[in-house]
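Sorry to interrupt, but I need a hand with the structure work. Go ahead and set the record down below:
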Amino acid sequence: PIFDPKEKDLNETLLRNLMGGHFDPNFMAISLPEDRLGVDDLAELDLLLRQRPSGAMPSEIKGLEFYDGLQPGKKHRLSKKLRRKLQMWLWSQTFCPVLYTWNDLGSRFWPRYVKVGSCYSKRSCSVPEGMVCKPAKSVHLTILRWRCQRRGGQRCTWIPIQYPIISECKCSC
C-alpha cells in the first residue's frame, strides 16, 4: 500500500493527457460500469449467441452444397432455402463469440477497469463434437501502470504499457 498512487496522483485530467488518444471508452473505464455481465446471465447469453451468430458467415460454410450422402449419379440439388437453413444451423453450432467482461486491474493501473475478452467454451463448437473455441487474435490497449523505483530515493511515476485483449476466437483442437 505504501507504493500505491496517492489521491494527488489520480488527477483524471493529467492522466487523460498522459494517455493521449489511447483512451477508448468502449474498453476502458475509471469507475466500474453498470453493464457488467453477471454469471446468472450466461445461460441466457448462451441461448442468444447460439441462435444468432454475428459478422460474415465463414466462406467454408457459405460454400457448402450438402451433396454428401445423396445417391450417386442422380442430380440432387437442395432448394436454396433449405441449403441456407442448413448453413445457418451449422454456423450457429460452430460460432465462437468473444465474451467481454469488465476487469478491475487495481489501483496501480489507470484506467482501473478494462473490458477483457474470453472465448465461449461451455460446449463444443464442432460437428461432430470435440473442438472448442480458443483465442485466435488479440489487440493491445495502451493503459498506464504506476511504477516505483528506489534508485536515489523512492520515485514513482505513471508509465504506458500494452495490455492484450482477445478480439477473435476460432473453433480448434
Notes: Residues 80-94 form the longest helix (15 residues). Strands lie at 28-29, 98-104, 109-110, 113-119, 132-149, 155-172. The chain has a mean pLDDT of 84.
